[in-house]
Design goal:
Elements (H helix, E strand, L loop, with lengths): L2 H8 L6 E8 L13 E15 L2 E6 L2 E5 L5 E4 L5 E9 L15 E4 L2 H17 L7 H18 L16 H13 L6 H7 L4 H12 L3 H19 L4 H7 L5 H12 L3 H6 L3
Antiparallel strand pairs: 1-6, 2-3, 2-4, 2-5, 2-6, 4-7
Amino acid sequence: MSTDTHISCLRDIKKAVITKGKRGDFCPPQPDHFHNFYEIFYLLSGQCHYLLNDSVYRLTKGDFVFIAPGELHHSLYKEGESCEICLITFKKEHLLINSGLTRQSFMGSVPALYQEAFDGLLSRMLSERTQIDEYSDAFMSIYLQEVLLTLMRHSVLAEQDPGLLNARDAEILLATKYIYKNFKQHLTLEEVSAVASLSPTYFSKKFKQTTGMGFKEYLNYVRLKYARTALLTTDSSITAIALEYGFNDSNYFKDLFKKVYGKSPREFRKNPD
């Protein structure tokens, strides 16, 4: 993977963190990225588009995205589009009790009736981040627990057809969807660029500009993501998993897995956290 992607994946956090700010078309474009902790992206106002794995969704006030570790994502903004957001990052060990967290991302919307109370909860979290006293960390954990329970209650995604950022990116979205559907197969740059109806050279350049990753990087990311799940949910050998998920060389798979996730596949299987 590229250096930036590698860092975004392995960056660690010591405690739950909440931030509030504004984003929009005035911000530098954000590349696709993923990391080894949970993230909550919540819209206090405004609107934006959000890429999660291979689809782009339109978000408005009260909508949220819950991003699990290892999931590809970033926010997108049309011309004149902006929003005010709260962003919360945390790891499972920052919770007081098991909230039934999974490694699956989900989206939803806090109903208008509950938004004022939920926004107040976020305000209390923002206050405690200044370390008011020795009880602040405990309050942060309690508030985080309440945030998660609220979002899980409202996690039914009212999914519509993915809203494309603009027509210029439509062919790249076609390509990423094709990769997700066919990543177990032997995919070439020529084959996928043909799906996007672009020349291999132009496709390679545009794919990098749009996703922040090269074609091969993105393909390996998708393969690693599913292989990672297979390590935890099946008894298949590491070699069998490597071959099933598109890696012809199990040693290459092991080296790449360790580079991206910081552990060998065997170590990850024993201790995924």
